[in-house]
Amino acid sequence: MAEDKRFAVLIDADNVSAKYIKYIMDEIANFGIATYKRIYGDWTKPNTGSWKEILLENSITPVQQYGYTVGKNATDSAMIIDAMDILYSGNVDGYCIVSSDSDFTKLASRLRESGMVVVGMGEKKTPKPFIAACNQFKYLDVLAESEKNTETIQKNTNKTKNVLDNTKNSTNAETSESLKSMTDINVIKMAIIKMINESDSENQSMSMAEIGNRLAKRYPDFDVRNYGDTKLSRFLNKFDFLDIKTDGKEGASIWVSLTSDESEDLLKKNITIQKKPKKTYKKKYKVNKPKED
């Protein structure tokens, strides 16, 4: 059995709420073991008091960082220095950087250059450059919303559909601006079609697991929970252009192929949208006047 990867979890207290700590620790457990758990902030400020009990419960080490100048964030520098010190110690296989601040974009890129796996976590307001610099990025507010939906479903099994619809509608109305950085569902659709079209298999199909892995590598913020689902199979089943079948022998493998008509229509629409209308130019002809004698 392969050993679990070791992660350094570094949290920016200035940009992350204490209410997300459960989701942070639960998510990183899916990737490996958190060997370093540090949180950075000015703990003399009253607004950091909500972290006290949570840090003790989760064995997270608070790192004091005073703000040297009003309006300037000194926490970022402390996190970056510690991240590089940990890198050179050789004690970890990856990092979990928890912040919605784009100042950590260069740090994430540098850590990946050194062969580290970088998992970013933040809210939907996180700028795109930081998301793209990570191997994977998790939206904490989406994880929190997803868990609330699950709890509601368990309590109200007869009203599951109505609760989900209402939750999605209210969430969309409140966060329309913050969703701009999230990968659009239409981009995901086109990526799936192209992947299956480029497949080398005889029946032009791909395993569902392979599709999930490729999407996560291509789009760091790809997570089916971002689109209102809890499983990849349910997410893919929503698309009419996909034909999903289980392996006949054991039923353990799930294979995905395209329904030709639907996928071709989507591709044509996408190509039409991307093409710019051609400009037409009218030729001008010079009329030479006859010279006077």
Describe the structure.
The chain has 293 residues and is an alpha/beta fold. It folds into two domains: 156 residues, 5'-nuclease (Rossmann fold), CATH 3.40.50; 92 residues, Winged helix-like DNA-binding domain superfamily/Winged helix DNA-binding domain (Arc Repressor Mutant, subunit A, Orthogonal Bundle). Helices cover 42% and strands 17% of the residues. The chain has eleven helices and nine strands. The strands form two sheets. Strands 3-2-1-4-5-6 form a six-stranded parallel beta sheet, sandwiched between helices. A three-stranded antiparallel beta sheet has the order 7-9-8. Helix 6 runs antiparallel to helix 7. It starts with a strand and ends in a 19-residue tail after the last helix. About 7% of the residues have low confidence.
Number of domains: 2
Could you state the CATH homologous superfamily of the largest domain?
Answer: 5'-nuclease
Describe the sheet with the most strands: 6 strands, parallel
User: Uncertain runs with pLDDT below 50, 5 residues or more?
Assistant: 170-178, 271-281
Percentage of β-strand residues:
15-25%
Quick overview of this protein structure:
With 293 residues, the protein is an alpha/beta fold. The protein is built from eleven helices and nine strands.
SSE order and pairing:
Layout: E1 5-12, H1 21-29, E2 32-41, H2 52-58, E3 61-64, H3 75-89, E4 94-98, H4 105-113, E5 117-122, H5 128-133, E6 136-139, H6 140-155, H7 160-174, H8 185-197, E7 205-207, H9 208-218, H10 232-237, E8 242-246, E9 254-258, H11 260-274
Parallel strand pairs: 1-2, 1-4, 2-3, 4-5, 5-6
Antiparallel strand pairs: 7-9, 8-9
